Amino acid sequence: MRLRNITGSKEVIAENEFVVPEEEWKPGHWREIFGNDHPLQIEVGMGKGKFLHTMAKLHPEINFVGIEKYSSVLLRAVQKMEKEPLPNLRFLRMEAEELTRAFGPGEVDRIYLNFSDPWPKDRHAKRRLPSREFLARYDVILKKNGRLEFKTDNRELFEFALGELEPAGWEAEFVTYDLHGDADLMAGNVMTEYEEKFSALGNPICKYQIYRKY
Ligand code: SAM
46-57: per-residue pLDDT in tens? Predict the structure, then answer.
């Protein structure tokens, strides 16, 4: 994600009706926030929110929460919501390391990781969103039998992510190295901003869907 420090973005985010402020992060409160008990799905590392905004429009029966660490990036998602507000989409300006401060045990039905930052240096492996350290956090907040989906065009990151499953106690339901070449898996696929960009360059898109082994 290209970053520019947009002046005033922190202030806009702090006061925005679509962003749940830190003082209101309470595990177990999403039903109250949305005013219903619909299933809850989250995207970790949402970027500008294209994927989740489209998903929320397509699936009014599901509540969505986007998590993004940079105010200047989150601002774009917020601006999209101001143009086209949706009752079933909210945002958190949050470092994903803190997920369990905002989501209770088993509160989330599905987790999306899309084109996560690769952190190519070995010493930064723990920061990769599909790492075993993050899988342990997802394990807390994801409901039993919940699913996690990960898409990327970065083959090295994808291989790393696959290697993390067994030690973390997760299993793949499906794995593809060419999502766009698989008509069955493409049914209902919503393209993310990065997916559009990299598939247009001819990069194959890798995807897995995983669940916990018990
Ligand atoms: N998911 C979007 C897509 O597919 O178009 C954006 C992908 S972009 C490469 C990754 C985004 O994840 C960036 O906006 C980055 O700021 C965010 N991000 C990375 N690590 C994060 C973390 N630990 N907590 C929250 N956001 C994170």
Answer: 999 999 999 999
At the topology level, CATH places domain 3-212 in Rossmann fold (3.40.50)
Would you kindly state where each structural domain of the chain is located, as residue ranges?
Answer: 3-212
Nearest CA to ligand 1 atom 19: 45
73 Cα nearest atom in ligand 1: 14
pLDDT digits (tens, 9 = 90+) for 156-190: 999 999 999 999 999 999 999 999 999 999 999 99
Sheet holding 40-44, edge to edge: 89-93, 63-68, 40-44, 108-114, 142-152, 206-212, 170-176
Which of 53, 103, 129 is the pocket-test mutation for ligand 1 (most atoms within 8 Å of CB)? 129
| Percent of the chain at pLDDT exceeding 70 | 98
CA 79–ligand 1 middle distance (angstroms): 17
Cα 49 to middle of ligand 1, angstroms: 10
The answer for residues whose C-beta is within 8 angstroms of residue 187's C-beta and 6 or more apart is: none
